[in-house]
Amino acid sequence: MRTIIEKGGSMEHDKRVGLAVRIFSNHIGREIEHQITNNLPNGITGLQGRVICFIKSRADDVFQKDIEEEYDIRRSTATGMLQLMEKNGLLIREAVSYDARLKKIVLTDKALKIHDQIIEEIDRIENQLINDLTEDEINTFFSIIKKITNNIK
Fold first, then answer.
1. Which residues belong to any copy of the HTH marR-type domain (predicted)?
2. 16-118 has which fold?
3. Which residues of 10-35 are buried (b: 16+ CB within 10 A; e: fewer)?
């Protein structure tokens, strides 16, 4: 097994993959939050914006479990976010006829009206992220992320 940690137990700060990914993720998360919060109405967060887009894109019913899996978030995180979105009039939960325990998540007219704005902001940020990258670099990035993800699962 290969290791990038030197025998003395020290290593250059920027060679720790986990730390680099965390810093990278924090930068992206802050930028998304900043742009969506400042450019969209109703105090919508970046994750809320993405959830609205996810629900809108699905042809079938969406449940809390789907959101937890799509964004790899804990149940408690999803519950709190969905409750806040419901309180803010962005979604409602409706019972389904085939299972009394399940409630599907449905976007309100309020959420549907801002969906296109959310898409525009997310697309703008995504384009900013890949601004000077080639198609090969983008493909390599996703290949590496997939391998690292599989290594920790």
1. 1-150
2. Arc Repressor Mutant, subunit A (1.10.10)
3. eeeeeeeeeeeeeeeeeeeeeebeeb
